[in-house]
Specification:
The protein is of the alpha+beta class. Helix content is 66%, strand content 11%. It is built from 20 helices and 19 strands. Helix 9 packs antiparallel against helix 14, helix 10 runs antiparallel to helix 12 and helix 18 crosses helix 19.
Length: 878
């Protein structure tokens, strides 16, 4: 495959058309600064092949800020010596056209045909990903991905294996693989495939052995527990007989009685102290009461002066509040008048605005009605078009599966004819002008080659006749097979009323085209009339009714203001009305606040006068002096009584300190608990003796030692079974490894052609180095000479730069392999060697120059200076 011309338009960075032609068959170097469009050109090539033209997941192909343009890519290239042109348009006016050697295809048929030729596939939905890109995804290196080759090889492995001739079907049907699968199956019955852990009968045997061992341990534990229980029962009986004789809880009960008597005496002393404390609190309360009463009388005498000052202050506040009230009354009246005028202006402005809005609504409804009438006419035209295209598609219809059946018959005919030609007898003639020769009754002249599959007579004038009897036992059956395929094709063509397979394919293509056109017309019809023509007609009638109603409403509205009348705009009137309303609200609030302040001031003056009068009345009471003298005498008596009670309480508290009431209460609690515990222990021990006697009698009747002996025999049998299965599993595992090693050796021989091409390029890059091809056909372990002798390591252990170089080398080897298998190749390197040093880059240029003799290679780089010695002139992106 060789590119010849590329044209892109409205594609990411390139809004204006960009055309590149003059591609050479070998190296093509494009060198330009960053952000100049090199990677965009490479992405355009990938999009043309990998993305469906109808995909909605390619919005990133549009130029930034352009939401309506159609990204377009057009490619001229050569495939198997035939000129080809691919045109794709995305997102907007979607289309795909493919012309190969003058034969045109379009749509998904063209895309699928190109994918089968180049070795890739399309996703079910969404944008294409590396797993779908196959051979081109392997050979077309994206920027920054040259070092990552395993994934790309995995996605292209089927195509590479076909090129190697390593058919998975043939390998799977070989006798060796049948043995390997049988061994693997038996091994996997005993061991897991991945970890090699026991499973199936082997795991069951191990589980049985473990369970029997656990049961045996439990039996041994039960036997030991029985023996321990017997010893414990003997000790419990001995302790029970000792306590039954000593009765220790009786002595504890006697000590408890003495301790309770001491505690009761101490509690009586504490009760007397508590009673004196209560009387002392009452006396203290009386002292505080008389003292508070005397202090209140003293405060009343000082209150008169304060009340007089407070009355003078609130009278001054009342005068100020009345002044503010008189100032706000005229302001409030002016604000109310301005608000009324603003509301009248707003009413007139809104009336005028409503009339203008209704006039605009009438105009809008008229425009909508005209547009609906036009859409209705177009929809009727598109409906007629849909009916015509569907009828044409129906006329061109080919029964489902007939085309594939016809193509299979054609392939069978070609195969049968090729096999017949391969085994038939070939006759080559080189005759003189005057010679007269007849073969099977047909006269020949000049140079001629003819194959015969049955008895054939060659008559030479003047000489005689030669009879040719072709050999080969398969000639007759091959001829019958060819004739049968030919007859079947003829019958199919006759039933389809077609002259050739190509004609049927053309009918299918035309039917798909008509269906596509009908679908496009249906989409237009759906856009014009989403709910159908009847719904559109009903919508027109509804709009006409609404238009008539709107015109009637406009006619009933008040007339427009006279030409000279000054009607402010609605927004201005609303603003003025809002300002007037706010001013009125503020004036009302201020006036109301002034009224409230004046009322509050009056109330404060009245309250202050009442308080002053009340205080004077209290001081002028003739009984006040006698009450004050009585309170002083009562306070003196209460203080004397309080002092006597405090002395008595102190004496009782000193006596309680010598008794220590808490310790006596603890003694009672301790002795009572000890007596209960002694009795409870004695009772529990009796219950435990009874329980142990029953339990030991039950265990002794179970025959635990006989059961343990039986379990021991079962355990030994299970252990022997585990050993047998373990030996079998290890033997099968070892045999499977040997078979796999033999199969790997066979696979290495099958991959020898790829190994040859890898070694060819590797000797240019790393002289004397060796590389292994992994089972997945990607580069594996690499061995080369280093500063300390031979060094060996996996591909993944190399530096990024070395993996980058080996990634390019491996792709060139894959391209050589594909070319030998007559598969199309094209290599694209988008900044594929950015991590390569100067010395390695010099070697890689040799590698690329050598590969360019067999392949077309496109190199995109932002470092033109380093590629000057590649042997080709660097081109700029226009």
């Amino acid at each position: 495959m060789k590119l010849q011309r590329l044209r892109i338009e409205n594609f990411k960075l390139f809004r204006a058309p960009l055309e590149i032609d003059g591609f050479t068959d070998g190296l093509n170097l494009f060198a330009a600064p960053n952000e100049s469009g090199k990677s965009t050109v490479a992405e355009a090539i990938r999009a043309a092949f990998f993305e469906r033209h109808r995909s909605s997941a390619v919005e990133h192909l549009r130029p930034w800020g352009e939401s309506s343009v159609t990204p377009t890519v057009e490619l001229d290239f050569e495939l198997d010596g035939k000129p080809c042109r691919l045109t794709k348009a995305f997102l907007g006016k979607k289309r795909c056209e493919l012309v190969i050697d003058g034969k045109a295809m379009d749509g998904a048929v063209a895309e699928d045909h190109l994918a089968s030729l180049l070795g890739f596939r399309f996703p079910g939905k969404g944008a294409s990903t590396p797993e779908h890109m196959g051979i081109p995804g392997l050979l077309w290196i994206r920027q920054g991905t040259s070092h990552d080759i395993a994934g790309a090889v995995g996605f292209a492995s089927d195509h590479l294996r076909n090129a190697l001739g390593e058919s998975l079907g043939e390998l799977a049907s070989s006798h060796g693989d049948a043995v390997l699968k049988a061994v693997e199956g038996e091994r996997n019955e005993l061991l897991t495939p991945s970890a090699g852990t026991p499973r199936g009968a082997f795991a069951d045997a191990i589980r049985l052995r473990t369970d029997l061992g656990a049961e045996l341990e439990r039996l041994y534990a039960d036997i030991e527990a029985y023996r321990s229980g017997v010893d414990r029962l003997s000790g419990l009986r001995r302790d029970h007989q000792r306590d039954e004789a000593a009765r220790p809880w009786a002595a504890l009960r006697e000590q408890l009685v003495v301790a309770q008597q001491r505690l009761d005496e101490a509690k009586g002393l504490n009760d007397r102290k508590n009673a004196q404390d209560a009387v002392l609190k009452q006396v203290a309360a009386q002292v505080n009461s008389w003292r508070t009463q005397l202090q209140a009388m003293e405060r009343e005498e000082a209150t008169v002066v304060l009340r007089q000052k407070n009355l003078q202050a609130v009278q001054e506040g009342l005068a100020k509040a009345l002044g503010e009230l008189q100032a706000w009354e005229p302001r409030h009246a002016a604000a109310a008048q301005a608000d009324a005028a603003a509301r009248e202006n707003l009413r007139a402005a809104r009336q005028a605005a409503s009339r203008i809005a209704q006039e605009r609504a009438v105009e809008s409804l008229a425009e909508q009605l005209a547009a609906l009438v036009q859409s209705h006419e177009k929809a009727r035209s598109e409906q007629d078009k849909v009916s015509r295209l569907q009828a044409e598609a129906q006329a061109l219809a080919v029964p489902e599966g007939e085309l594939k059946r016809l193509q299979r018959c054609a392939d069978a005919l070609r195969t049968a004819q090729a096999r017949l030609d391969a085994v038939a007898t070939a006759l080559e003639f080189e005759l003189q002008p005057a010679a007269r020769v007849r073969v099977a009754g047909i006269e020949l002249s000049g140079s001629k080659r003819q194959t015969v599959i049955a008895r054939t007579d060659i008559e030479i004038e003047g000489i005689g006749r030669i009879t040719v009897l072709p050999g080969g036992a398969d000639l007759e059956s091959l001829a019958i097979e060819r004739d049968r395929a030919r007859d079947e094709i003829a019958a199919l063509l006759q039933s389809l009323r077609a002259e050739s397979v190509a004609a049927v394919e053309e009918r299918v293509r035309l039917q798909a085209l008509r269906k596509g056109e009908a679908g496009a017309a249906e989409a237009v019809l759906a856009a014009l009339a989403p709910k159908g023509l009847s719904a559109l007609a009903a919508d027109i009638a509804m709009r006409e009714a609404r238009l008539a109603q709107a015109r009637q409403v406009l006619q009933n509205m008040p007339p427009a203001p006279a030409a000279g009348a000054a009607v402010p705009p609605s927004a201005q009137a609303e603003s003025e009305e809002s300002a007037a309303r706010a001013a009125l609200e503020a004036a009302s609030a201020a006036l109301n606040d002034a009224k409230i302040a004046a009322g509050n001031a009056r109330e404060q003056v009245r309250a202050a006068g009442d308080e002053l009068a009340a205080v004077k009345a209290t001081l002028d009471d003739p009984m006040r002096a006698s009450r004050k003298a009585e309170a002083g005498a009562a306070l003196t008596d209460a203080l004397a009584q309080q002092s006597a009670l405090q002395d008595k309480v102190a004496e009782l508290a000193q006596q309680l300190q010598t008794v220590n009431l808490p310790v006596l209460a603890q003694d009672v609690e301790r002795l009572e608990r000890s007596a209960r515990q002694a009795e409870a222990t004695h009772s529990q021990r009796a219950n435990e003796i009874t329980r142990l006697e029953v339990e030991l009698e039950t265990r002794g009747a179970l025959g635990q030692e006989e059961a343990a002996s039986e379990k021991q025999r079962e355990l030994e049998h299970a252990a022997r079974r585990c050993t047998e299965l373990e030996r079998r599993a290890k033997a099968l595992d070892h045999l499977l490894k040997l078979l796999r090693e033999k199969r790997s050796a066979l696979a290495r021989r099958l991959r020898a052609p790829l190994q040859k091409h890898l070694d060819h390029y590797l000797q240019i890059l790393f002289p004397g180095a060796q590389v292994e091809v992994g089972d997945d056909l990607s580069p594996g372990r690499i061995t080369r000479q280093g500063l300390r002798g031979a060094q060996s390591g996996d591909f993944a252990e190399l530096s990024v730069g070395a993996r980058e170089q080996m990634g390019v080398v491996a792709r060139l080897a894959y391209a050589d392999l594909l070319k030998e298998a007559s598969k199309p190749t094209l290599l694209i390197l988008d900044d594929a060697l950015v991590n390569t040093d100067e010395e390695r880059l010099r070697q890689m240029k040799r590698v690329l120059y050598d590969a360019a003799a067999r392949h077309q290679i496109l190199i995109f780089s932002c470092h033109p200076d380093v590629w000057r010695d590649l042997g080709v002139v660097a081109r700029n992106i226009p």
